[in-house]
Design brief:
Layout (H helix, E strand, L loop, with lengths): L42 H21 L12 E7 L4 E4 L10 E8 L7 E4 L7 E4 L8 E4 L6 E4 L9 E8 L5 E10 L32 E6 L4 E2 L3 E9 L6 E6 L2 E3 L3 E5 L4 E9 L8 E7 L7 E7 L2 E11 L16 E8 L12
Parallel strand pairs: 1-9, 11-19
Antiparallel strand pairs: 2-7, 3-4, 3-8, 4-5, 6-7, 8-9, 10-12, 12-16, 13-14, 13-17, 15-16, 17-18, 19-20
Length: about 350
Amino acid sequence: MRLRDLPHSGCVGVRVRPKSVSLTSPLHLGKIIMTSEVSRSWWPRALHLLVSGLLLSAHTSTAAYTVDASEPELETSQVEVVLGYNASLPCAIHPPPNDAPALTLWYIGSGEAPVYSYDQRPTSRPNRWSETRVFGERASYLPLEHPPVLHLTNVTTQDAQLYRCRVDYHTSNSRQAWVRLSVIVPPTHIEVVSRMSPVEVGQINDVVSGPGRWSSNVTIEPEEKPLVAGRRANLDCTVIGSNPPPQVTWYQQGQEVEPLRTEVQVGDNITVSVLLLDVTREHHGRQLVCRAQHPTLSDATLEDIYTLDVSFKPNVSLRLGRALNPADLQEGNDIFFDCSVDANPPPYKIRWLHQL
C-alpha cells in the first residue's frame, strides 16, 4: 500500500491480514513510498494510519496463539484405564518444522482455564504448574515421550473427562489435540439374592426357563439345641427357591444316609428334608452334608455342611504316670498320676480326693 493511493477526502479503511505480520519479523518500513504528490496535510493522518495498522497487526499476530476450542477435532485419542491405576494422556500434535514448543497447556474440554501447564520458554529449568483441585500432585508432563504425555497416577472416576492439549510455539501458530480418558470401575462386591419362583409346582408353566436359573440356598439346623448323647434328634435341611423341587441327599462322614422324611411347601417354594439321628458321643465333631440338586440342571447343585456339636457327660480315667513302673514303687519316692477327662463341654473344675 502506498500513501499516494490514498484518496484526498473521506475516510480511509485499512484491512490487516492476521498472518501477514509476525511479531518476530522485522517491519520493512522502507517499502512505504513517500512522494511529493501527497499533501503535507495528509502526513499526520498517514502517520496515524501507519501506527494504527501496526498496533492492529500486533494484536492479530498475538491472536494467532488463540485457537478455537469450541469442539474437538475429528481425531480424538482414546485412553482407557482401570480405577486406581496410572494413565498417560498423549498430546498427539505434529510440530511445525524448524520450531519448538514454548508453552504447553492442558484444559478440560472446551474450558478456558487450564488445569496444567508446562513452560519451556528460556529459563533456568522448565516450569510446571498443576491445578490442585483437579489433579493435586498426581500429574506430571513428559515432553520427551513420542508423543509427549500428561501422566496421571492413581486415577479416580473424576478424571474421566475429555481433555484438550494446546501447544504454543516460538514463531508458529498454536496447535491443539484432544484426548478422552475413560475410567473402568471393577465390581466392588458380589451379592447372591435368593428369589422365590412365581410358578408353583404342578402349574402349566412349571418348567426351567434356561441354564443357571436356580437361585437357592441350603441350610441345616437341628430342631433342638444342644445335641445330647443318648437322645434322638431331628435335623432339618431347608432348600429355598428351587423349581421344580430339588432332590435332597444326606451324607455323614462321606456315607449317604436316608432321611426320615421330606416335605415340600408348594406355596412358599420351600423343600424341607428331616434327618433322624440317634445321637452318641461318637457323633461329636462329625460332619453332616445336605446336598440339593436340581432335577433338570445337572450342574445346579448346592450343599450345606454342619459339624455336630454333641454334649456328653465326663468320662474319667486315672492311671500312674507314664514314667512310673507299678512293680517298682518304693516308699519315700514321688508318685505321679494322670487324670484324663473326656467331656463336652470341657469340665470347668477337677477335684482330687484321697481315702474317702
